[in-house]
Amino acid sequence: MTALFLRDLKLSIRAGGGALIGVLFFLTVVAVIPFGVGPDLKLLSRIGPAIVWIGALLAALLGLDRLFQAERDDGSLDLMLTRETPLVLTVLVKCCAHWTATSLPLVIASPLLGLFMNMDETAIGATALTLLVGSPAITFIGAVGAAVAVALPRGGLLVSILVLPLTIPVLIFGVSATYAAVEDPVPFLPPFLILTALTLFFAAIGPAAAALALRNASD
C-alpha cells in the first residue's frame, strides 16, 4: 500500500502539471473576483471565504478524471481487480495520494489567497481549516465519478458534471463553518462537525462505490 501511495503521488504530480495546475487555476479564479465586484474591500472581505471555497472546489475537480486513467491506459486496471488486496482499500489509498498531490496544495495556498480577498486572520485560519477537513470529501466523491467514466475516452467533463452536484453539501457547510468562526453570535462547532461527518461518510462509501463501479466497468 505504501508503494501504491508513492506511485500514485508521483503520477498525480506529473500528470498534466499536477498540483501546479490546480494552484494556478485556484489563483486565477480568486484573483479575477475583485475585478468583477469592484474595489469594495468590505464586500471582498465578506464574500472572501465563499470565493476561496468555490475556487478550491473547482480546482479540485480538475484532475479527478485522471484518478484511474494510468491504470486504464497501461492495462493494470484488470490487475487491480484480481489482486488479493481488497479493491476498496486500493481505491482508498489512491484517493489519499490524489488528495495529497492536488488538494493539499490548495489548502496551503488558501491563506495567501485569503489576503487577496482582504480577509482577516480569523477568516483565513477558519477557511484553511475547513478546507483541510472538507476537501478530502471532494476527492472521495470524485473517485466515484472517475470510476463511472473510466471506460470513456474523454470522461473529464462527465466526471465534473457527475461530481459537482454531490459536492454542494460540502461547500455549504464549509462556507457556513467559516462564516460562523467570524461572526460571534453563530456557533462554529455545529457546521464544522457536520462537515467532518460528511468527509467521514464519503470516506466510507466513496471507495466502496468506486470499487463497485470499476468492477462493473470491467464486465
Automatic annotation (TrEMBL):
Keyword Transport assigned: yes
Task: Report the GO molecular function annotations.
Answer: heme transmembrane transporter activity
Q: What protein name does the entry list?
A: Heme exporter protein B
What's a single GO BP term from this record?
Answer: cytochrome c biosynthetic process
- How does this protein lie in the membrane? Multi-pass membrane protein
Which residues are listed as membrane-spanning? 12-37, 43-64, 85-108, 128-150, 157-182, 188-214
Q: Which domain of life is it from?
A: Bacteria
| A Pfam short name | CcmB
Where, if anywhere, are coiled coils annotated? none
Task: Name the species this protein comes from.
Answer: Rhizobium sophoriradicis
> Where does this polypeptide localize?
Cell inner membrane
Family statement drawn from the similarity comment of this UniProt entry: Belongs to the CcmB/CycW/HelB family.
